[in-house]
Amino acid sequence: MPHCPRRSLLLFCVVLFCVPSALAEKVFEERGGYLVIEMESTDSLLGQWKLIPANADGYPKGAVGEGHLEYQGPWSGQKAVDPLEYRFTINKPGRYFLMFRAHKRLLGNPGDKNNDCFVRMEGDFASGSDEIPLDVLQTDTKLFGGAPESWGQARRLDKKKKAHLKEAVYEFKAGETYTFTVSGRSTRFNLDRMVFFHESHDAKLKDLQSLPESSFTNVEAEAASNASASSGEIEVLGDLHPWHKVTLALDGPATAEDATPNPFTDYRFDVTFTHAASGKTLTVPGFFAADGDAANSSATAGNAWHCHFRPSEPGVWEYEVSFREGKMVATSTERNPGKALAPYDGLAGSFEIDADNPATAPDLRADGRLRYVGKHHLQFEGSGRYFLKYGPDSPENFLEYDKFDNTPAKGHKGIRHPFTAHAKHYQGDGQTWQNGKGKNILGAVNYIESTRANSISMVLNNIGRLVPDPKNDKRPLSGPGDGDRAFPYTSKQERLRFDCSKLDQWEIVFDHAERKGLHLHFKLAEIENARDLDFGNGGIGDERKTYYREMVARFGHHLALNWNISEEIPVGAGTRKAWLSYLEEIDPWQNHRVFHTGPSKDKSNFYKPHLGESSLTGISLQTPEATSTQNVFNETKIWVDRSAAKGHPWVVACDEQGPGNKGVNAGFDLSRKYVLWGNIMAGGGGAEYYSGGSDLKLDDYAHFHDLLIWSGYAVHDFFYAHDIPFWDMHNDDSLIGNKLGHYLTNGSDILVVYLTEGGDATLDLSAYSGTFDVKWFDPRNGGDLQDGSVTSLTGGEKASLGKAPSKSDQDWAILITAK
Q1: How far is CA 129 from CA 132, 138, 184, in A?
Q2: For the chain, what is the mean pLDDT?
């Protein structure tokens, strides 16, 4: 079915620290072509808008109602401050003009001072004028006017080049609800009331004083009434086996994506799971799920609340619900913020998990959760297997798929993906949505799995608002990301409300990837938009907290993933630490946490401040091109060694390679030798492959075929197949006599040599005793271990490794094991 239109309430954040805007308790109703609203009918949470009583000294007389509002905050330039929100419904469709009753209190200033504010409209509307682009009306735009000695009118927009000195005109639809936001800009700008009037009327300034205020309803009271009508029943959904997804579905308060209270910020639904036999307990965040089947229905409203859980143990698990309500309770880390919401808070029950686990490889449910365990490699909690990752890093806009709801065709760069080349790879082996949608992207996942790759990468949010940098007009503090089509929100303007159907559809794909054995590399932001949330003014505010919580609640349960707080991260150490610490605090699964830098040679300024800290469990390296300078090996080893020295070893992966216009396309052979093997032989956790300039348009993963096949030879056929304990091995190239060779050892009975460009090599075994078998492995063709010209070595001396079985000028791996 078609995707339902969205009507979203944008809660805005301010400079220095962030708070939610006032929750609009009233929804005003247009009648007869007039909508009249007193400015004081909503709250100013920051207190920058002050209520001035009617007829107060020093102000014009005749303010209607209790008085009027004056913005007393500092002049804010291009940043909207202390937003006031007003919600209303339209009965009579058509074009509506906006007019404020306004006063500019100059106190000696020129007439063009103290005379403007920002305005923004949210909802399903069009521009009412050919001279005003829709995006001007949808974003914070300066509106000015008012009289200096009395009450005047303010109705003209000041948006140079797009709508300069034009009246604000909106094309509204009947039956729709809209949210209008007024934010501070000029100090001592005064607003008494506002009027939206239909084009069939010709409102005058005097009408702003004489028209009666529009009637309104209290939507909080209605929401509370709806909530009390819900049953509070809980259904346990899913496969009751260890590591399988179990979903607790609560029949909770009825609400909607655009409702007040905001279901994503002003309700907090958590479930505490306890396994009495083992003593394990875990508190897992839940989320609003619309009608419970939004992937298929595209629903925006309902009373379904879901919580995904992954039981690690068989037997009885007990659960207890915590359901709190109040402004911004969702992101609070307090135990009991706000107030308990009856009848849901305190609901309890239990379910039993079978001892049998029917999942088999490559399905990750056979291995359990991939966890950071204080080593340079992640380990699966269930099977105990350690992990070396490899897979495609491109296209990073994987989620810009044309069959996902609310994913626009128009973006910034690249394409919206049809994944047509992978239609043939879908074999009816995955869940689709809306009568067969999703086959191509599921086919893409199948193709990656067919190469034996075990990881896939994507950006979860690549939209951004333009936030100018006063120090650098060539590169703003924030703006649209590379693709500008992938986002979890109800609209590109929204930051506190999420698209339930789209996120459910994402989840279907992530479930499929998990069953196909793929680790999920979730990039939460990229350099272009990392500072978009909360305007990036240091630390962490409501927008970022809400985003992190929703992503953790919906997707953090997956068994193999990492949170990358930003690709090419642009913020300082204090901000990075705040982001990481909050993520660490709210993620019950304690998934791997990393961040990614640009390709600079020295990354010390980025990584050094985090050494030894628990909030960062690894790093996502971006390196220059793979060449014989061995930069991937060198950079991996630097941070493997430095983190180990600080007592908190990092998992170091190489996830993007340069130059930016080529990536691994500069040479697949080079990438095999210097990226994959270079990273592994330095003690790293694996690699992902970036396709350079083709990244955002890459629609066929077969582009990486050879590289993925070669990587499978290394990971599956060499390290895994021969039980090589790479997680307990360290690099010591000082013991190998080959300029471009590398050496890993566990210090006793297993040694690995990699000859990047082939040739002869010696190995210093002075510190070892006994004899060792020598076997050669072909990284280009895989296959069985082979004999070279030397088949055994003796400890206590430096010895030649002999000649390769063939093609001695090519790369070879050598496995040396004690007899």
Answers
A1: 5, 14, 25
A2: 92
